[in-house]
Design a protein that fits this description.
The complex is a heterodimer of chains A (112) and B (531). In chain A, 40% of the residues lie in helices and 33% in strands. Chain A starts with a strand and ends with a helix. Chain A is globular and about 30 Å long. Chain A has one domain: 2-Layer Sandwich (Transcription Regulator spoIIAA), CATH 3.30.750.24. Chain A is α/β, with parallel strands linked by helices and 112 residues long. In chain A, helix 1 packs parallel to helix 2. The mean pLDDT of chain A is 93. The longest helix of chain A has 16 residues. Chain A has a five-stranded mixed β-sheet with strand order 1-2-3-4-5. Chain B is α+β, with helices and mostly antiparallel strands. Chain B is 33% helix and 27% strand. Chain B has 14 helices and 20 strands. In chain B, 32% of the residues are buried. The model of chain B has no long low-confidence stretch (mean pLDDT 90). The chains are: A alpha/beta (112), B alpha+beta (531). Chains A and B meet through strand 3, helix 2 and helix 3 of A and helix 12, helix 13 and helix 14 of B.
Chain lengths: 112, 531
């Protein structure tokens, strides 16, 4: 998978592309850890380029939510594909993640 | 010079003849033209119980048992009155009332003017011969009965219900065995080993009769038992041969052709153990012989390692197999039907369906024999790998990975390519890749307590409107679908990932199933996704 990190003020936006599954989630986990270690506690993960997410990917989201809660931070997920939305729904993750249709929405939902 | 006859005076001759008639073992009667007895010899009395004085002046009707048709005597009279000799078997009644069978010859005697004036009847008691004939006949009938039992055994072991697989549109099969008068040892069999592998067998036991029928029964059962989990025809026959030849005191043997057709891939694996070469009838015409022999006849020597050949046949192609009862059928002149005549017949007419094909060949053989005695069983079996139907696989992807998490991506890449090739919608493709990730990561992470490399087989079958995927692994027996779904309403603090993957799988696919195949020690996980 491909991961790019952008900044919008004190918010860091991670663009994920490819598949988020057993093979790639360690990579995603490492990238997120680095961002958190840099002192950032406001994170947006843009899933625009993500084809699908398996439970390994969901695990990465869960870990990130828990870490950010400890840091008093926030996580927004945006632009999931239809299939990814379906996965988030059937796994119940849409109730514990703040999922937004667009990046703008995610940005404006971020409490500064 | 005087002749012998001249020396032998008429008087002497008559006396000698009278003595001969008196002492003859056969009953001799002289009657007048109306059948009234004028003279009988002592043998007549011995035969019938009637003394000379009791019978003289009476009609021979006194012996009538009533067993004969009234026309019988009418015909007899017509014949002897016309001057001809009459001979037949007659059931008569003795004086004591008992019946006996005699062979009677009546010769009309003419007087000097040439008019029939007397009859000489000679009676020969054949009751004993009749009794022996009856014994032989009933022994023969008993033997026939046993042969019929053997033939019944033979026939009852064969699949005789056609169409054999009415719910399979991709396979048609038809077979027919015409038993010789004496039971021969032909047999055939066919069955699905599993959903996709179709096994068919044809064979011919050396010898005839009850032993051949029993030998056939044993061989057929062994082949079926050996093929329950075996896709190698070479290994099946090697095993069967060892079993059969071990205690083969009768030195019987059997020729066998066995084939297994994979109905997904069209791969036909076959082994020929001394049997007549089958033919592939190509769709649209053309006949290809399968000439290979992969080993000796079954039952001759233990320890033979049979070989096998694999070819790929196309949908629409058919296979035609037969026994030597076809090619070695003889006409009245003793000429063989021959391989050549069979080949010409197969080449001449386009394959229509299995029944038509089998009947065409067998009818040709029967008409060739043209009433000559059928010396051997005649058997033909035809298999048709039918063209694309709603039921048949459009394409397939059979692959495998070893138990390393990093290999799941190799599978999903391959499936990606396959999905693109067949325009499978992206959504379906992504969901199936998620399912692969969930199921395989579970297996690779938890199914192998050892550190060895294990192979996981994945078979993807693409039908017109569905995908069916089978995953086979040799890990610890474990049904992933037994796992209860996690509580997906909990807050993130209490959420767990365990079990979530299978929960997702169950919701993404349309059908799923699991079984553990003990014989091969494999977990078989299958899921279906409609497109």
């Amino acid at each position: 998978m491909e991961i790019r990190v952008r900044e919008a003020g004190n918010i860091k936006i991670l663009d994920f592309a490819g598949k988020l599954d057993t093979g790639t989630s360690p990579e995603a986990e490492t990238a997120i850890s680095k961002v958190l270690e840099s002192g950032c506690n406001k994170l947006i993960i843009n899933l625009k380029g993500i084809e699908y997410v398996s439970s390994s990917g969901l695990r990465v989201f869960l870990i990130t939510v828990k870490k950010l809660a400890a840091l008093n931070g926030q996580l927004k997920i945006c632009q999931p594909s239809e299939v990814v939305s379906e996965i988030l729904d059937i796994s119940g993750f849409s109730t514990i993640l703040d999922v937004r249709d667009s990046e703008e929405e995610a940005l404006s939902a971020m409490q500064l | 010079m005087r002749t012998l006859r001249d020396r032998y005076s008429t008087n002497e001759q008559l006396r000698a003849q009278a003595a001969a008639m008196r002492s003859a073992a056969n009953g001799i009667i002289i009657t007048d033209i109306n059948g009234i007895v004028k003279w009988v010899n002592p043998a007549f009395t011995n035969l019938t119980g009637y003394e000379f004085n009791e019978i003289i002046g009476h009609s021979l009707k006194i012996l009538n048992s009533g067993s004969q048709d009234p026309n019988f005597f009418r015909d007899m009279w017509a014949k002897i009155l016309s001057g001809e000799v009459w001979q037949d078997e007659v059931v008569n009644r003795r004086k004591d009332g008992s019946l006996y069978t005699e062979e009677m010859t009546i010769t009309p005697i003419r007087d000097r003017k040439g008019k029939i004036s007397q009859f000489v009847a000679i009676k020969h008691d054949i009751s004993e011969r009749k009794r022996l004939e009856q014994i032989v006949r009933s022994a023969h009938e008993r033997m026939e009965g046993e042969l019929n039992v053997a033939r019944d055994i033979q026939m009852s072991m064969l699949p005789l219900k056609f169409p054999a697989f009415p719910d399979r549109e991709d396979i048609d099969v038809y077979a027919k065995l015409i038993a010789a008068r004496e039971v021969g040892g032909d047999f055939y069999d066919f069955y699905f080993i599993d959903e996709e592998n179709f096994c068919f067998v044809i064979g011919d036991v050396s010898g005839k009769g009850v032993p051949a029928a029993l030998f056939m029964a044993v061989t057929k059962a062994l082949i079926k038992a050996s093929s329950t989990n075996e896709m190698s025809t070479a290994r099946i026959l090697s095993h069967v041969n060892n079993e059969i030849s071990r205690d083969n005191d009768n030195n019987m043997f059997i020729t066998v052709f066995i084939g297994i057709l994979n109905t997904t891939t069209g791969y036909l694996v076959y082994t020929n153990a001394g049997h007549n070469p089958p033919y592939i009838l190509k769709k649209g015409g053309g006949v290809v012989k399968l000439p290979e022999l992969h080993g000796l006849v079954i039952g001759a020597f233990p320890g033979i390692e049979y070989k096998e050949t694999v070819i790929q046949i196309n949908r629409g192609d058919a296979v035609f197999t037969y026994t030597d009862g076809v090619t070695e059928a003889q006409n009245v002149e003793g000429k063989l039907y021959s391989d050549n005549r069979l080949l010409k017949l197969l080449e001449k007419e386009l394959f229509d369906n299995c029944k038509v094909q089998v009947d065409r060949v067998l009818n040709d053989v029967i008409s060739y024999e043209d009433g000559a005695i059928q010396a051997d069983d005649i058997t033909a079996l035809s298999l048709h790998f039918r063209e694309q139907t709603a039921d048949s696989v459009v394409d397939y992807l059979f692959t495998s990975i070893t138990n390393d998490l990093g290999n799941i991506g190799k599978l999903t890449d391959k499936f990606e390519e396959f999905a693109v090739k067949h325009d499978i919608p992206a959504e379906i493709k992504q969901k199936i890749n998620i399912v692969f990730d969930e199921l395989l990561s579970n297996t690779i992470s938890y199914a192998y307590p050892d550190k060895f490399v294990h192979e996981i087989e994945i078979k993807i079958r693409f039908y017109k409107e569905k995908l069916i995927v089978t995953i086979m692994d040799d890990g610890s027996p474990y049904n992933p679908f037994d796992r209860t779904s996690p509580d997906i309403t909990l807050g993130f603090e209490d959420r767990e990932i365990g079990g979530l993957g299978v929960h997702i799988v169950k919701l993404l696919v349309d059908e799923y199933s699991y079984e553990y195949k003990k014989q091969v020690k494999k977990n078989i996980t299958t899921f279906k996704k409609h497109i």
